[in-house]
Structure formats: C-alpha cells, structure tokens
Amino acid sequence: MGTPVALDIEEIDAGDQRILRVRGELDMAAVPMLDAAVSRVCADRVRDLTVDLGALRFIDSTGLAAIVHASGMCTNHGCAFRLLPGPRSVQRLFEVTGLDGVLPFAEAGAR
Q1: Which among 10, 66, 104, 110 could bridge 82 via Cys, Cβ 3.0 to 4.6 Å?
Q2: Domain membership of residue 48 as a residue range
Q3: How far apart are CA 111 and CA 97, in angstroms?
C-alpha cells in the first residue's frame, strides 16, 4: 500500500477563470494530482488559471517541477497562468532556485 497523499486541491470556477487552491504538501506523491487538475482546467479552455499556494505547508523539487510544468501546459493551451505566493517556507524554495524571478507570481495582496 502506498503512502497517503497529503494534498488537497480546491478548484474554484469563475467562468473563464479558474483558481486551484492547494493545501498541504506538494511532493512526489502529490504531483500527479496537480498535473491532473491543471490538465483538466486547460481542457476546459479557461482564459486564466491562478494557483494559490497560500495554504501549502511543504514543497519539494518535484513540486517545483510540477509548477513549472503547469505553467508550460497553460502556455501551450493559450491560458494565462499566475501564482499566489505561499508561506515563507514555501516561497524560500522558489527564491533559492531563482524561480521566483521566472514564474508569474502575483502580489501577496491579490488573493
């Protein structure tokens, strides 16, 4: 039996905009959930996707790769992509890797 996935993704539908609010831990076990959610949103041909990292407790390198992949999927489907920042411990990983300057983070007050 596998390790239980400690991630919850709430999908908020706002017409041609979608918000994915991720809670918990975005690690190797949880990446397929995020990939599936982003694929589903892209297939719905939404105009904008926002991934809210505000309730994320943990992210590892596979989680970072999944966020980069999500951005690419959106680009390929003509969907605008942005991130709402996570807690300090999560944002620190984006900063250390330099991805905070590459990925489209919205201002913290834009929730």
Answers
A1: 104
A2: 7-95
A3: 24
